[in-house]
Inverse folding.
């Protein structure tokens, strides 16, 4: 099946929904495809169903704000297709999808990739054992299943998400064995101007975060500047060892360890398109180069939300609205001047919303061992390739990520490098005395998500993708 | 490893994990159900036969893949459960005929 639309949006989080609402306001024909089962993205995951469940009372206002956003999206008249995987995007723009076991393609005048973020992979020895999970994963289960760890849980993390999860967990009657704060010691004076700016722009958010930390330190063993973690066990996590920057170490028995080191943009679609990407030094990640409207280097293909650089839900919504205006102008529904005028107040709000972010970025920088882990660490979870084997290859010539892929199979498993590409780039940079932005990431090729031959064969009426 | 805070009541469904019945709530993810079992893992890896459990719960890591209703390599974190769903832990590489 092949269809057309004025605008196809990939992802129904804050950015995708806001763009859809804006584009619909200008009468565009909008199709939104979403990997999840319901709109809301990760931040407002499944908010419609969850708001009627017992766990809803513990999730906080920021989560419930999602209900209104989803309501506006549902009322907008955009076509919404959940449980849909986008496995190829190409210039044109055109997207190839599968849903309910059948593939189809959509040709659109504009495409908006609102694919959000993923948690930054946290490699350390033993991180592949069952029982080591991300904080985000545990929070998703808390939201959608109303479930908490059975035993008091260990959390080793850096950044606001882990603090929020810990606060939610304690409120819900969950127990925390200890909080290992992996935030490195930083030169605090350097962050003071950013802190002042953040306090001015978003005093409420800052106070909320401070409240979480105070409450956590009052109720839970709290160990600062944890620099190294090593997990042990056969078939599942049995114990782990941590060590602080000043050399204080301990080994504890545990069945569950939750880890988190911030989030990075999901950029597989724009990488596969060959869009120009920039290195964001402040966030230690790549993001597609975007103009003031969110358009990539590929005409008609836009990015909004965390997929274009981490900013959070409020920033994502505003960027979605701005992209929606430009897309309406491209479709001839409003003039460029009208789009510019409508975008102006949104840009002012965006600037304000971004102020707090630069403080968070500076304060919650991940520790160095996240990027270049110990030799025995598995770098590629799928193909089980160790850091040591990457180093061994790096010693032969000066390979880039694609040579590493060919010689070790790192990045060739089903996750297609989503968990190892930054580790490979960082280990190569370290071994070769180069910088990560010069090394770059793997070449990403379709399918972006695995699909069966059956699904591929169901694409009968468009022939081979051209 | 995890426990549910509430009783699914009217939303309760039964799924079968390696043939063993387990209580679940309609539309929660199969991966979330796996994490409540006494033996919370989803697959054994093709390379070293090591056990793996869901890691990211948001469709990124592929460590939660299992055979769901006869289809191999399904990301269980993206698979909403329904009554009678069969979730079979996947051992090693997927085969064309499950």
């Amino acid at each position: 099946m092949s269809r057309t639309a004025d605008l196809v949006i990939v992802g129904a989080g804050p950015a995708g929904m806001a763009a859809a609402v804006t584009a619909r306001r200008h009468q565009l024909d909008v199709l939104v495809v979403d990997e999840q089962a319901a709109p809301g993205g990760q931040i407002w995951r499944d908010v419609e169903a969850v708001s009627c469940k017992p766990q809803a009372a513990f999730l906080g206002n920021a989560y419930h704000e999602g209900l209104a956003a989803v309501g506006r999206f549902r009322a907008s008249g955009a076509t919404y297709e959940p449980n849909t995987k986008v496995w190829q995007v190409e210039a044109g723009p055109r997207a190839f999808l599968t849903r309910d076991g059948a593939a189809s393609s959509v040709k659109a005048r504009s495409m908006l990739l609102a694919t959000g973020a993923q948690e930054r992979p946290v490699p350390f020895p033993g991180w592949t054992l069952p029982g080591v999970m991300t904080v985000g994963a545990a929070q998703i289960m808390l939201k959608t299943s109303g479930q908490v760890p059975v035993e008091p849980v260990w959390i080793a993390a850096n950044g606001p998400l882990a603090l929020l999860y810990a606060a939610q967990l304690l409120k819900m009657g969950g127990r925390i064995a200890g909080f290992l704060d992996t935030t490195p010691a930083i030169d605090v004076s350097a962050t003071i101007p950013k802190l002042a700016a953040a306090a001015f722009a978003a005093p409420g958010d800052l106070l909320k975060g401070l409240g979480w930390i105070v409450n956590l330190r009052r109720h839970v063993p709290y160990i600062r500047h944890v620099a190294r973690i090593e997990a042990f066990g056969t078939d599942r996590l049995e114990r782990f060892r941590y060590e602080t920057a000043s050399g204080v170490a301990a080994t504890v028995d545990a069945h569950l360890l939750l880890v988190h080191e911030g989030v990075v943009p999901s950029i597989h679609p724009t990488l596969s398109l060959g869009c120009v990407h920039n290195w964001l030094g402040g966030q230690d990640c790549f993001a597609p180069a975007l103009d003031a409207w969110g358009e990539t280097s590929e005409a008609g293909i836009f990015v909004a939300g965390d997929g274009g650089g981490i900013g959070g839900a409020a920033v994502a919504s505003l960027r979605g609205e701005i992209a929606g205006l430009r897309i309406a102008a491209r479709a001839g529904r409003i003039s460029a001047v009208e789009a510019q005028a409508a975008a102006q107040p949104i840009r002012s709000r965006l600037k304000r919303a971004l102020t707090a972010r630069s403080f968070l970025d500076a304060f919650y920088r991940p520790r160095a061992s996240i990027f270049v882990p110990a030799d025995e660490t598995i770098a590629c979870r799928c193909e089980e390739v160790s850091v040591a084997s990457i180093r061994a290859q790096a010693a032969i010539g000066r390979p880039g990520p694609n040579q590493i892929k060919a010689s070790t199979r790192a990045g060739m498993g089903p996750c297609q490098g989503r968990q190892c590409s930054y580790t490979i780039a960082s280990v190569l940079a370290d071994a070769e005395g180069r910088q990560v932005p010069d090394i770059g990431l793997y070449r990403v090729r379709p399918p972006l998500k695995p699909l069966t031959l059956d699904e591929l064969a169901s694409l009968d009426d468009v022939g081979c993708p051209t | 490893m995890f426990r549910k805070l509430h009783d699914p009541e009217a939303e309760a469904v039964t799924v079968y994990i390696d043939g063993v019945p387990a209580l679940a709530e309609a539309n929660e993810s199969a991966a979330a159900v796996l994490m409540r079992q006494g033996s919370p893992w989803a697959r054994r890896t093709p390379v070293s036969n090591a056990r793996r459990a869901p890691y990211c719960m948001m469709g990124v890591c592929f460590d939660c893949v299992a055979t769901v209703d006869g289809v191999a390599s399904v990301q269980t974190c993206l698979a909403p459960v329904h009554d009678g769903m069969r979730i079979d832990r996947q051992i090693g590489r997927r085969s064309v005929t499950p």
